[in-house]
Write a structure and sequence with these properties.
With 217 residues, this protein is α+β, with helices and mostly antiparallel strands. Helices cover 32% and strands 13% of the residues. The radius of gyration is 16 Å and the shape is globular.
Length: 217
């Protein structure tokens, strides 16, 4: 499946979005300040081999959130603004094809691109994930966590480079931004973060080291 096709299906329904907004309004902000330093530069991690970028497509509904995705949810909530919009939901696209949420390997984190403080926090999170570490390893934290994809505010990252590309839902074939976009389908009101299977199973260096002791720069 092409990147554009795969990413176009990362949104959630209008009804679900409305319910999540209501819940978010009742929930407190999880973190008062964003994490300042990149854990990928922790000496304990820099001393270990770094994972290669890899992508695992989803094929079916597994009925639960994976433990690595729950750990990611806790980590983001401890270090950045916003609230969780959830992990698992069954979304089948066809025979043998499904949303990564269906396997419990994707987190939707509510940060609204229309709110300046939220947008800054979302970009701080994303830039930390895809930044190079002190040894020059590209997308170091993403690789060590097992992050395979990110979508936010009509932009996407799926293992290519250190910046975000255009998200296909938001743009026509000529590359011009479409009008009257659904804000949730455009990922303008949340950050979508996917894990590959090693990350979802907490079998990557970040999660292994975190279980020993908090990774610190």
């Amino acid at each position: 499946m092409s990147r554009g096709t795969r990413n176009r299906r990362g949104g959630i329904s209008k009804l679900a979005a409305a319910c999540l907004l209501a819940l978010a309004a009742l929930a407190p902000t999880a973190a008062s300040a964003d994490l300042a330093r990149n854990p990928a530069n922790a000496s304990a991690l820099l001393s270990q081999p770094i994972e290669e970028l890899s992508y695992d497509s989803a094929s079916k509904c597994l009925g639960r959130a994976q433990r690595g995705t729950r750990a990611l949810e806790d980590w983001v909530g401890s270090n950045f603004r916003g609230v969780s919009w959830g992990i698992y939901r069954c979304e089948k696209w066809g025979k043998g094809s499904a949303s990564v949420h269906s396997e419990g390997r994707a987190l939707d984190w509510h940060l609204d691109a229309g709110v300046p403080a939220d947008k800054r926090s979302a970009m701080n999170l994303i830039e930390m994930l895809i930044a190079a570490d002190r040894d020059g390893n590209e997308a170091a934290l993403a690789r060590r966590m097992g992050v395979q994809g990110i979508i936010f505010n009509c932009r996407q990252w799926f293992g290519y480079g250190d910046s975000l590309d255009k998200y296909s839902y938001c743009f026509n074939r000529q590359g011009k931004r479409r009008k009257h976009l659904n804000r949730t389908e455009a990922h303008m009101d949340h950050v979508h973060i996917e894990l590959n299977w090693p990350g979802a199973r907490m079998r990557t260096s970040f999660w292994t080291e975190t279980r020993r002791a908090p990774a610190r720069p």
